[in-house]
Amino acid sequence: MATDRIHVNQMGYRPQDTKHVFVNDQPGEFQVVDSKDRVVFTGILEGPTKDDASGDTVYRGDFSNLVNEGEYRVLVTGIGSTALFPISKFAYQDIHRALQKFFYYQRCGMELTPEFAGEWAHKACHLAHGVVHEEPDVHLPSSGGWHDAGDYGKYTVAAAKAVADMLLAYEFFPDAFADEVGIPESKDSMPDLLSEVKYELDWMLKMQREDGSVFHKVTTRTFPGLDVMPEEDHGDLVFSPVSFTAVGTFVATMAMAARLYQSVDPEYARLCLSAAEKSWKWLTNMTDVRGFHNPPDIKTGEYGDSVTADELYWAAAEMYRTTGDERFHETVKQALSNPNFPILELGWADVGGYGSLAYLLCDQSAVDRGIYKTLLDAWLARADELVDRAQKDGYEITLLPQDYIWGSTMLLMNQAIHLIVANRLSKNEKYTRSATNNFNYLLGANPLGQCYVSGFGEKPLMNPHHRPSVADGVDMPVPGMVSGGPNANLQDSAAKQAASGQPPARCFVDDKESYSTNEITIYWNSSAVFVSASLCTNNG
Ligand code: G3I
Ligand code: 9MR
Ligand code: ZN
Q1: Does the pLDDT of residue 2 top 60, yes or no?
Q2: How far apart are CA 450 and CA 286, in angstroms?
Q3: What is the C-alpha to C-alpha distance for residues 158 and 280, in angstroms, rounded to an integer?
């Protein structure tokens, strides 16, 4: 009997992992049975914990001692069982690969051939030049890069977060990226992760103007219909005005790229660094540091941001880490002397955490001991606070009830990244265990028993707000896409209709119309890639 009250990670567990089953509103005994229905483990459900985010009364069963590889189900007498899931060293390899392959499916400006895209193949899209919003006579190349999300816009600050997560994942866990992903570049000598990110960087370079400024985005003026394939989206492409946040995050990611591509393509690394230098000049000469606002005739995503000091901080910290030049160190010191921005966030708007991380990863001989210690203490204090929160949460995750906002799965994964980094900075397995719990939640160990990734799990995401998946006539959505997840603010009518009055963690609907709970984006996937990489490495 299937049930919606017994929840596990639907992708299973690695033998050494903590393994918890969460049962809503049912104490007593639980059993784990193998694929031949033989009972291999019996335990007692502990608790309950009242889960504020979902309203659930959660009982927890611990079967961590079951370490033999195999296929299992968890059974609770009277209410039913889960589907089969594996315990395997390789439990997360496939989903890790799919989370990366997603970026190939988002590629703009090239044909996706059946050889690599299977049934999700489609013709090349958005090849036209874009018009510069303020200069209607100026048309510039705009093609390439990844579509941002369920729409076909391409936005610089969103790209920067996605690129940063992916490059950090590669830096932390290179061995997790040894396998081919199945992209056109798979047979060349560059690791697939770096080839995929280069596709985006090449486009970002097109967003840079002669004077070093960077366009905020290139999009049509309005969103096309939900049933429009990318190659049928023929609205004019418009470069929205440059923004301080676009330039700052551009500098930061180009400086990162200069480091990461150094060993595989030194010429490209140099190109990225000189692009970063050029935009850095613009940044430091800029007096208008306000965030971006859509021009009145542009209705696509705004990615606005009223706090811009963190973008300067991130840019300076990456430039310092890459070049060792004191000029950048000075800017970092200044930014931190009395910071009026959050220094630990890893978002597309709040990017201070990337700046702090860049500094913490600087050559030890290059850092100011005082600053280093302040940042390290802050990083670890936040990590301890996250672990504390998870201990109180019914599903053992780090989100607070107020964290269920648009893109809550990104917060869930960002907090996991924070913990994984904390373990790197100060070895303590409680951090990585807590990060893994967040990953378990993403893949089914949650109140809705929803796997928030398409193509995977017993209850996969089926109807994401993703134009190609809606328009292509294929039954299954593009695989490996991470949904935004529960959003208590219910910011679209499908979500309002489906989930009004529900507690935060239940404010989700797997409906193609629900862009505020069920869209997908490059920077939600990228944060999940960092986490999946940490679980597919021999080097945690
Ligand atoms: O952070 C605040 C929080 O302090 C506040 O308490 C809470 C209550 O409303 O809201 C939080 O802000 C939310 C913000 O996201 C957090 O990042 C806003 O409500 C919410 O409207 C905002 O949503 C953004 C959305 O665009 C609408 O602007 C998403 O973050 C952002 O990911 C999304 O991005 C869109 C692009 O514009 C277009 N392409 C698709 C993409 C994904 O949906
Ligand atoms: O599809 C759009 C999605 O990518 C955005 O995140 C979202 C919010 O900006 O808007 C979606 O487009 C909707 C538009 O805002 C209102 N009309 C319906 C559109 C969805 O089909
Ligand atoms: Zn396109």
Answers
A1: no
A2: 46
A3: 19
Residue closest via CA to ligand 1's atom 20 equals 406
429 is catalytic: no
1-89 has CATH 1.10.3660.10 classification: no
pLDDT, tens digit, 9 for 90 and up, residues 456-501 = 999 999 999 999 999 999 999 999 999 999 999 999 999 999 999 9
Q: What is the mean pLDDT of residues 367-379?
A: 98
Nearest to 203 by CA among 257, 151, 243: 257
Instruction: Spell out the domain ranges in the chain.
Output: 1-89, 123-167+185-396
Please state, in angstroms and as integers, the Cα–Cα distance from residue 155 to each residue in 123, 424, 500, following that order.
22, 31, 31
- Catalytic status, residue 350: no
pLDDT computed for residue 254 by the predictor: 99
State the ligand closest to the CA atom of 143.
Answer: 3
Catalytic residue among 20, 418, 465, 466: 465
310 is catalytic: no
Q: Which atom of ligand 2 is the closest one to the Cα of 153?
A: 4
CATH no. for 123-167+185-396? 1.50.10.10
pTM: 0.98
Determine whether 151 is an active site residue: yes
What atom of ligand 1 comes closest to residue 349's alpha carbon? 17
The count of other CB atoms within 10 Å of the CB of residue 485 is 30
For ligand 1, residues with CB inside 6 Å are: 148-149, 151, 153, 301-303, 405-407, 489, 491, 515, 519, 521
Tens of pLDDT along 307-330?
A: 999 999 999 999 999 999 999 999
Judge whether 157 and 305 are in contact, CB under 8 Å. yes
Nearest-atom index, ligand 1, CA of 149: 40
